[in-house]
Amino acid sequence: MDPGQFLLRQHSAFENRHPASVDSFYKVISWKQYFAIICIKLCGGNPTINQLSEVMGSSHQNVNQILLKLEKKGFVHIEDDVCDRRKQRISIT
Predict the structure, then answer these.
(1) pTM for the complete prediction?
(2) Cβ(46)–Cβ(90) under 8 Å?
(3) Which residues does residue 91 pair with via DSSP β-bridges, in sequence order?
(4) Contact 60, 53 (CB under 8 A)
(5) What's the CA gap between 80 and 22, in Å, rounded?
(6) pLDDT at 3 (0 to 100)
(7) Radius of gyration, CA atoms only, the chain
(8) In this predicted model, what pLDDT tens digit does every residue of 23-50 receive, in sequence order?
(9) Thinking of the domain 3-92, which architecture would CATH place it in?
(10) Whole-angstrom Cα distance, residue 90 to residue 17?
(11) Rounded distance, CA 14 to CA 93, Å?
(12) Helix (DSSP H) and strand (DSSP E) numbers for the chain
């Protein structure tokens, strides 16, 4: 595991124990929303919600709720896949 992934996991573990402290630090978005943006960048391109949920280690429904909040705040855009309309692709704005 590279040092960046290690630090990310440690930060995520801290957030799970102290969510109010971490969320107050980020102010505009929650740690989970910030983590979703990091994972989108790690995926490269425009991942599907299923791909992102695998990277985040979370359910499709949970990731979808996080993404809807990020889209409302203008951080991401969710659109139907051109080739498969059952899939939705995520892009950072």
Answers:
(1) 0.75
(2) yes
(3) 77
(4) yes
(5) 32
(6) 66
(7) 13
(8) 666 678 888 898 899 889 988 889 999 9
(9) Orthogonal Bundle (1.10)
(10) 29
(11) 28
(12) 5, 2
